[in-house]
């Protein structure tokens, strides 16, 4: 609470001042830190993986693997001690090829002075209490990438974790050791093709287009899971940010609409700035030379212009970051040219940490023909966000 009090004094602005402020366009963000985890990093003493993806080689890496890769960072939680919990997604991109990939949260410690990221440990996700009512891949009920595609994670104020899945889409509630506490929570009227409850009905969402981002409200009472895909019947490129009441354990029926700059774009992550404003990663599907659009927007659900959409302000262009100190050995213009960028976290009122999902071993955005590392960067915005102090805890 001492840290929270300090943040209150240093970061909060009067509510009326924030509400009345119309953000000016942000300028160029600046790279303040760079570190990376080698692509071929594996969980010690773990099971083999990758038997269903083919022999490859993929970007010079042959499969299967003798152990579980530490890869696919698709969600992040700041532990406020210099370490972070990062979530691996379903493994290799689909149900059919990910049954031997164990869903896991890793604890990492990035050091931007040395440029290295250290993996300190982590825990697998499991369902020992039989909360999942449909069949799982493994008899021991350790969860795999054939069961769920977990893409977003928040830590509730009670110390438990909530994760967003893309196959249902479902909300999943875990304890601090990764054990499922409740049955998966469905979103009424929204089903992906992988949903086990389709029963011959047509899906209303594209494949693996479920909860790519998920926000914890600053008061800790709500979750706002953001779909990656457009629900059938909605305008192409419109994504629903849904409201889930944590105390009642149900959706309120309210949602807001985030419109992509292009229907072919996708979102990567979403976090709260205050009661009404959120940082959202929006990206194209390119990598390397074909990567053009990788941005972070400040989205406001108050819809000041009355068009029925969340208002958007660009705060950082990840393809045009100033790097005057040439950190990481890169040029004075730093780019983050990865296909999937799925992690953002607030460090202070002007500093963000951003991570990529390296889709191991398939993505090669940094160097053509070479599997991407998991990179952890920090960037300083050109202006303050005027964030609620609770967004940092």
TrEMBL record:
Q: Which residues form the Phytase-like domain?
A: 68-360
Coiled-coil positions: none
The keyword Signal is assigned to this record: yes
Signal sequence extent: 1-19
**What would you give as a GO molecular function for this chain, any one?**
transferase activity
Keyword set, alphabetical order = Signal, Transferase
Which protein, by its recorded name, is this?
Glycosyl transferase family 1
What organism does the UniProt record list as the source? Streptomyces lacrimifluminis
